[in-house]
Amino acid sequence: MRRILGIILGLLLIGGVLLVAVFQGKDSAPTATKTVRGVIGSEKSEFFRDPDVVKALADKGYTVKTETSGSWAMDRLALKEFDFAFPGSSEPAKEIEAAAGLEGAQTTRPFFSPLVVISRSNAARVLAGNGLVRMTGENSGTLLMDPFLKAAGEDRTWQQLSGSAPHPELTGTVFVKTTDPATSNSGALFLAATSNVANGNSVVADDTGIARTAPLLRKLISVQGALEPSTDDPFRAFISGSGEPLVLVYESQVAALLLQKQEPGDMVVLYPDTTVNTAHTFVPLGDRARELGSFLATDPKLRELALRHGFRPQDGVPEFTAATAPHAAYLNPGLTGIRQVGTPTVKILMALAERAKGQGDTP
């Protein structure tokens, strides 16, 4: 009898273990089946580190490991070590394709983000009082590129602007802190926009245009001193209360800060009235990551998470507008009053960057 009871208890125990395993299997997240490595712009680091993004990608069968690089430096990396590259715009993506021998690769643009200039309220209002900014709200405005670049070309200082006297912290030459235009996407595309304005509102397309715009671009860059490799450090410095009074960043960095209910401090968001949108472009470097770009662009959960990190999903203006509605005092969801311009060829843009940094031929 004891032996029979022992057998019955043993069977019940095994059955219980099996039931627990079954139910645990139903509740557990799918296991990623494929590990891929990618090189990304630093502005997307927090997106790929987000545990919810990690889980959503695992649901699609992916474990994604990333390294960061300036978008315009990616083509000089050992691309064979990566399964994908994810620069900040389509222009460096073309160079990456060429360097990897993959011209015509099936690239995807899952989301984009315009460039903005973040400012302290005192700086924004001084600029507005001198016709360089048009305020559109308590914490938002438009940077008027033509008068701003005219002031930069004249080496205007904060002290020369009317209304600056009560703000002794505003000193020295008026400039926008950017990243290195030779390696970083935001810095390069800021040059694309400013060169367009300096070239009579047309895309620089030849040596004459380069020579015409180079002196102004050189002033915009040389006044900054050391150049940052990405927007991350200048943005964090600004939010912490230090840093320059005018800093070029991605709108996504600002939107993410607001959507995640972090304290923006004394911040005004200025949208340049002439700009180039940055369509973050996914470049598959082999078959392993080929579907990943499509998932990032079309999967509802991943689009929702891209919004959480401040990005505008592909064809997602209504989604972005709805998600950021509580923060309308800072943002311009419809990009009202903003002129979007074309980008010079990669060859021209890199020539502009060299001249802006005091390299290459002198005019």
What does this structure look like?
The chain has 14 helices and 13 strands. A hairpin with a 2-residue loop joins strand 6 (133-137) and strand 7. The chain has a 6-stranded mixed beta sheet. The protein has a 5-stranded mixed beta sheet with strand order 6-7-9-5-8, with helices on both faces. Helix content is 41%, strand content 17%. It is globular. The protein has helices at residues 2-27, 45-49, 51-59, 90-99, 121-129, 145-153, 185-198, 207-222, 232-239, 251-259, 292-298, 300-308, 317-323, 346-356, and strands at 34-40, 62-68, 84-86, 108-113, 115-119, 133-137, 140-143, 246-250, 268-272, 274-275, 278-284, 312-313, 339-340. Helix 7 (185-198) packs across helix 8 (207-222). By secondary structure, it is α/β, with parallel strands linked by helices.
Topology:
Blueprint: H1 2-27, E1 34-40, H2 45-49, H3 51-59, E2 62-68, E3 84-86, H4 90-99, E4 108-113, E5 115-119, H5 121-129, E6 133-137, E7 140-143, H6 145-153, H7 185-198, H8 207-222, H9 232-239, E8 246-250, H10 251-259, E9 268-272, E10 274-275, E11 278-284, H11 292-298, H12 300-308, E12 312-313, H13 317-323, E13 339-340, H14 346-356
Parallel strand pairs: 1-2, 1-3, 7-9, 10-13
Antiparallel strand pairs: 3-11, 4-11, 4-12, 5-8, 5-9, 6-7
Helix pairs in contact: 7-8, 7-14, 8-14, 11-12
Count every helix, treating DSSP H or I runs of 4 or more residues as helices.
14
User: What is the CA-based Rg, rounded?
Assistant: 25 Å
Mind describing the biggest β-sheet? 6 strands, mixed
Relative strand content: 15-25%
Compute the average pLDDT: 89
Instruction: Report the principal-axis shape.
Output: globular
Q: Structural class given helices, strands, pairing?
A: alpha/beta
The tally of beta strands, per DSSP, is 13
Order of helices and strands: HEHHEEHEEHEEHHHHEHEEEHHEHEH
Distance between the termini: 103 Å
Low-confidence stretches: 5-9, 11-29
Give me the oligomer status: single chain
Order of the strands making up the biggest sheet: 2-1-3-11-4-12
**Overall helicity:** 40-55%
